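Below sits my pick:
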Amino acid sequence: MSRSVLVTGGNRGIGLAIARAFADAGDKVAVTYRSGEPPADFLAVKCDITDPEQVEQAFKEIEEKQGAVEVLVANAGVTRDQLLLRMSEEDFTSVVETNLTGTFRVVKRASRPMLRARKGRVVLISSVVGLLGSAGQANYAASKAGLVGFARSVARELGSRNITVNVVAPGFVDTDMTRVLSDEQRAGIVANVPLGRYAQPEEIAASVRFLASEEAAYITGAVIPVDGGLGMGH
């Protein structure tokens, strides 16, 4: 059955792999993007999730063109890494505004038609950093950890309407963001991963698609690590 799917930040990396996974399964897929080139294969809607009006307009366009969102994947996120004593207020608040408050906005808006339909799937993309912490990423880790408490609270609110809310926490993934690291940095990261390699974006996408499937209908409020064992026990 073809569903209306929205992936925020779906124009590259993990988000694009997730969008492709749903499209390959026959779903109608919309993606939001803030900058760069929109992917040609999906309904691409320019949207800065830090702007409530842009979020509302994006949902209206998606609803007109492919129907109310039945599966929401909140993937859009940013980093502004800096050591705590050098981190500015703006470094901290801008990351939280996008990663956490922006997710609140899109989940709140998507939940309205899901409540009316009495069904829906919400998957939030967190990070192993939100569970383990990472020096120089206090802002990013706080925002990604916040998604867990947010998801579990919303899962309790919406569960009676057959709406599940889950979190996928990727580890280090082979994307443009991690390819800028030096060979020495990449080797240092991999040394801490029990499986001894980076994840491929498609491996994250597979877990997201599972959580949005009928097979996962009794899973809600869960945090699924896809991190090669890096954060085990969290």
